[in-house]
Fold this protein.
Amino acid sequence: MCLLAIIAEEPSYGYEMARKLEGRGLALVGEGSIYPLLSRLQRGGLVEPFAKASSDGPPRKYYRIADEGRRQLNSWIGEWRTLTHGVDRVINGGTDG
């Protein structure tokens, strides 16, 4: 979900995504774990790869979100909010505060 949210903001390549996630507090996500996830997202029709010229080497493989990816991301966000609301209620003794 977090990787797809990063891609939804703007097309990115693997290393760039890892740095963005790390910059937002998900330092446990390494570049090596990004590529298998990108492959799964691509196979699922959630992202689309494309090549983009690089000023310092060969073209890079970028990913952009597909229409199905936007729908799935919205669904996952809704599920996440429901889950976190429930967890908050549990750890706060049954209240919302």
Remarks:
- The chain has one domain: 2-91.
- Residues 70 and 91 are 31 Å apart (CA to CA).
- Helices lie at 2-9, 14-23, 31-43, 67-91.
